[in-house]
Amino acid sequence: MDGPRSDGVAGSSRGRHFAATRWSVVLEAGRDDSPRAAEALEQLCRTYWYPLYAFVRRRGHGPEDAQDLTQAFFARLIAKRDLAAVDRTRGRFRSFLIAAMQHFLANEWDKARAQKRGGGVRVISLDAVSAEARYAREPADLETPELIFERRWAMALLDKVLVRLRGEYEARGQGDLFEALKGTLGGGGAEGHAATAERLGMTEGAVKVAAHRLRRRYRDLLRGEIAGTVASPDDVDDELRHLLAVLGGGGNR
Amino acid sequence: MTTTRTCPECGAKVPDDAPEGLCPACLVQGGMATGYASAHAEPVEPAPALDEVARLFPELEVLELLGRGGMGAVYKARQPRLDRVVALKVLPASLARTPGFAERFAREARALARLNHPNIVTVHDFGSVEGADRLYYLIMEYVDGSNLRQLIASRRLTPEEALAIVPKLCEALQFAHDEGVLHRDVKPENILVDRRGRVKVADFGLAKLSGGSQQDVALTRSGVLMGTPRYMAPEQLEDARAVDHRADIYSLGVVFYEMLTGELPLGRFAPPSQKVEVDVRLDEVVLHALEKDPERRYQHASEVKDAVERLPRAAAPPAPGGGGRLGALSVAAAIAGVALPLVLGPVLAPLVADRVLLLLLCLSVGATFELAAFGCGLVSRRSATGRAGLVASTIALAVGAMVLAGGLLVTAGQGRRPAEEVALEVGGRPLAASLLADGDAWVADCAGPQTLRLHEVADPGVDGGVVTYRARVRTAGFEGRVYLEMWCRLPGSGEFFSRGLDQAVTGSTEGWVSLETPFILKPGQRPDLLKLNLVVEGTGRVAIRDVQLTATGRILDREPG
Q1: Which of A141, A150, A219 lies nearest to residue B154, judging by beta carbons?
Q2: How far is the alpha carbon of A159 from chain B, nearest alpha carbon, in Å?
């Protein structure tokens, strides 16, 4: 399901060859014909389309318009792979996506709309109903379109990683363990290692080790997923800081 | 609608649909690593629970946990006797156990309490309480707003704004340095901007208490060292103790660079003018602050301020535009769920007799806006580069006020009371089904946050001027806030909205409260649809009556038929 080695941790501290991740594949290919790049880009779009939809909606477009718009945008992006905006956005797929969409809205949308109404090629299937249902649940406060995009992006990223992590544990028959220990990843509320040990018939020591392993695997997956959206492994920490900021990890402290 | 709870670990909001029900902020932190991993993943001590804090501070009303960092937990609290809201910072117990801490703390805290300056977060009081451990605390000014990190991250600050913020930072630093207090940890997270656009520096000197800057040692939950000391002066990296006030100037330089370009000045970095559109002379100032050798740096924060203020007005180019405008003001809206006006410089607001409103704009990356005189009432959606922005809310500039924005002078124009307000027809029954008639009013019992659509007015026949939506609102058994919102559709441009946040009603009202929210149109702008809403952010009963829509612009003759 995921691209090649998208869980490859950037071995920046070890000088290992940076495993090709999705966005870097796209960047390298540029506009050259490359099925790998096309596939990589498609996968990225599939993961991160909702933040863009929410952005478009918050900009004032209604549901049908937003749908058409987002579809048209992705179709165009994947077909043409116009990466001119990349330089300005320091190689982050996240920044690139919103910048490209803003450009699209400002310049291209009118033309695209004039050409065909609703009959465009559907490359990414956006579940219209669920998109709008999700959007309806967005808090009605003063979030700007940009902020909604950034926040939703962060959530899409985290979602992806956790789904994958849970999948790994369940595939090994360790779904219960994941459920019990997932609180250690953030937000607390975990029942405590002793209680978990008793409940699952493990020793407390084993639970501690399992928790540690879970956190480590989670971190690897998260960094890997982020690496898949930036141009160089050095950017991962910076991107994490950005995500933290938009999620409200700041404030009067 | 998603409801939110607060994360017990870090205090961030955790929405209903958070992945696996976990706190997104903590999840992101879990990914941070600089390559060191602690052998024993010992959790950082959690912030004391609210009721524990309330017990330890009986003279305070503890309201909520604002955040938690390496330097302790910060709570929002109220001092009933003084009837004011404060920030209570409780230092980590583990820190307090280091020998000699009590003396160092008292010394530092006393020095901080002497820092009484508009751009420094004031320390009101400090001390320690005996809980399960001895806990040291500070009671500080509460700043209702965001920090610079959030502002930088969520949308790019315009150069004008950066140029307006920096002198304030310089003043704060110079003042503290004059008092013999170094900050040692200047970074965007420690620079706060409140809702009125005032800049305040927080956490002066606290870095000394932990025996080093918080940047280099901060344990996260998973016991991994977090963060790199990217704001620290080179001499500080070598030996954290042997630094003087010039280290703060270096950090200021880093923040300045980051505000302008959105990036950190790492390795061989490009000067700001090569990254964003700013005057080349600005490069000199930034680079001078970033000199590796403290001897070659600016020697005083006040020198940086003078240098910035001496820059010609065109240090940041004004947004391009045609005639009829009196100047350019680029205003940005902060985020974190709150739109902030960054009104730069002294706003002589009280001078104005007429409506005093501030303009809140939501900027897309890099867009700037033209703000015309109040009389013309324009918010242009597009800058010349074609990038578009969105008006988040409108509170106009004080008529006749002068706003100094990073050296740019803006006159808001002559004041004049709108000559004539013409009432527009609004329509009978409100659209929202949940609103039920109750005499002259419409009432709804809201179980959760929602936007109640009241009326839609198609083709109001207005050209330019100010359209004002007024109503009287009342709430009962209500928790949260309520305000008016008007959407205005301009053919060819899109939909814009105006929110009456400055008048939002909080909690239950005693009787009817009059609210209004204006929308300022440029001559020639003819909306084809107006939507009038009541935004309910909370639960309880709300009632609305006497909905009015008035316009001052040219009223167009309706075409027959």
Answers
A1: A150
A2: 5
- For chain A, the farthest-separated pair of C-alpha atoms sits apart, in whole angstroms, at 67
Residue of B nearest to A236 (CA): B32
Q: What is the pTM of this model?
A: 0.42
Strands (E), B25-106: 61-69, 72-79, 84-90
A139 CA to chain B: closest CA distance, Å?
Answer: 6
The 10 Å CB-count burial string (b at 16+, else e) for B240-261 is beebebbbbbbbbbbbbbbbbb
Q: Do A253 and B7 touch (CB under 8 A)?
A: no
Measured CA to CA, the distance from residue A253 to residue B90 in angstroms comes to 10
Interface subset of A 76-135, CB within 8 angstroms of B = 90, 95, 98-99, 102-103, 105-107, 134
| Per-residue pLDDT reduced to its tens digit, B392-439 | 222 222 222 223 222 222 223 333 333 467 788 777 788 888 888 888
Measure CB to CB from residue A137 to each of B17, B71, B499 and give the nearest one: B17
**How close, in Å, is residue A190 to chain B by CA atoms?**
11
Interface predicted TM-score (ipTM) of this complex, two decimals: 0.79
Q: Tell me if A214 sits within 8 A of A161, measured CB to CB.
A: no
Q: What is the mean pLDDT of chain B?
A: 72
**pLDDT tens-digit map of B330-385:** 333 332 222 333 333 333 333 332 333 333 333 322 223 333 222 222 233 333 23
